[in-house]
Specification:
By secondary structure, the chain is an alpha/beta fold. The protein has a domain at about 75-155: Ribosomal Protein L15, Chain: K, domain 2, CATH 3.100.10.10. It has five helices and six strands. The strands form two sheets. It has a three-stranded parallel β-sheet with strand order 1-3-5. It has a three-stranded parallel β-sheet with strand order 2-4-6.
């Protein structure tokens, strides 16, 4: 056997079907395209899902759910993954070097899955509420969280500022009346004195 004698097995390769080669071939004249129409012409093309101008099916059906565009940038890390790492200080570069997160990940978030019994120091990573409690319970700490997480934490810690009430105490005397509890207003009108009857003229 030589290189120039190697051929595919008999029957494994069939010749390409040649259309438009006479009516006796079964695909003559219109070459399987039918009579007239856009698809019978050279270059006649319909985009995928085109339905002649009516609203296509992919637009008629309701849409459900949400897929975050940041999903590829943020990776999830389990507590059991942190327990397997031989180092105590962990950041995104250490996770990439150990193959815990993909190389394209920009940040990572620790979730409470598995057990962590050693103290680790995380830097530049975020963690869920349960994962944070588990890390701190094991003697670890989390430092240098992403800026977005730090801003949200500060907002939660600041108490809601309520507008100062400008109402005065009920017993404070008013300026105009001088009596406690009364609003300043116009002085009450005095009753008009009755006119004296004039003596009759003679």
């Amino acid at each position: 056997m030589r290189m120039n004698t190697i051929k595919p097995a008999v029957g494994s390769k069939r010749p390409r079907r040649r259309v438009g080669r006479g009516s006796g071939s079964g695909l003559g004249k219109t070459a399987g395209r039918g009579n007239k129409g856009q698809k019978a012409r050279a270059g006649g093309f319909h985009k995928v899902g085109f339905e002649g101008g009516q609203m296509p099916l992919q637009r008629r059906l309701p849409k459900r759910g949400f897929v975050s565009h940041l999903k590829r940038d943020t990776a999830e890390v389990r507590l059991s993954d942190l327990a397997r790492l031989p180092v105590g200080e962990i950041d995104i570069l250490v996770l990439k070097a150990a193959g815990v997160v993909p190389p394209a990940a920009k940040t990572a978030k620790v979730i409470r899955t598995g057990k962590l019994e050693k103290a680790v120091k995380l830097s530049g990573l975020s963690a869920t509420k349960g994962a944070r409690a588990a890390i701190e319970a094991a003697g670890g700490s989390i430092e240098g969280e992403p800026a977005k997480k730090v801003k949200e934490a500060k907002k939660r810690e600041e108490p809601a500022k309520q507008p100062a009430e400008s109402a005065k105490p009920a017993g404070e005397p008013s300026k105009a009346s001088g009596e406690p509890g009364k609003k300043a207003g116009k002085a009450p009108k005095q009753a008009a004195e009755p006119k004296q009857a004039e003596p009759p003229k003679q």
